[in-house]
Amino acid sequence: MLQKGEAQAGSSSDVAMEREGQWATRGAYQRRWRANPENRAGERKKLSRARGMKRFRESLGDVLPAAQRVGRCAFCRHRTPKFRVQRLKPTETGFEAMELPYCGEC
Ligand SMILES: [Zn+2]
Q1: pLDDT tens digits, 25-57
Q2: Cα of 103 to ligand 1 centre, how many Å?
Q3: CB-based burial of residue 74 (10 Å sphere; 0-12 exposed, 13-18 middle, 19+ buried)?
Q4: 43 CA to middle of ligand 1, Å?
Q5: Which residue, among 62, 57, 100, has the nearest Cα to 81 in the 3D structure?
């Protein structure tokens, strides 16, 4: 009897966890992952390298996304684009329309 009651209590708390959303468990995982100094150092290194590459690209005057440079679909980055679609890009003052290559399949 007691075991059955415990099982029911456990299952109801599981439902509550699900209602809280997966974000709660993902957040816990992320906090645990970040608590590891090795992971944090790797993340910092990766970010600083990405920022350095961005600055380097901007210094060349090439600020187009990679997908536009190599002639691939901007969404799947795999197929050859057949036409261009307009998307809004967030800027500091609002939104700016930009055209992206699109394969039409993805
Ligand atoms: Zn595509």
Answers
A1: 888 888 999 999 999 999 999 999 999 888 877
A2: 4
A3: buried
A4: 29
A5: 100
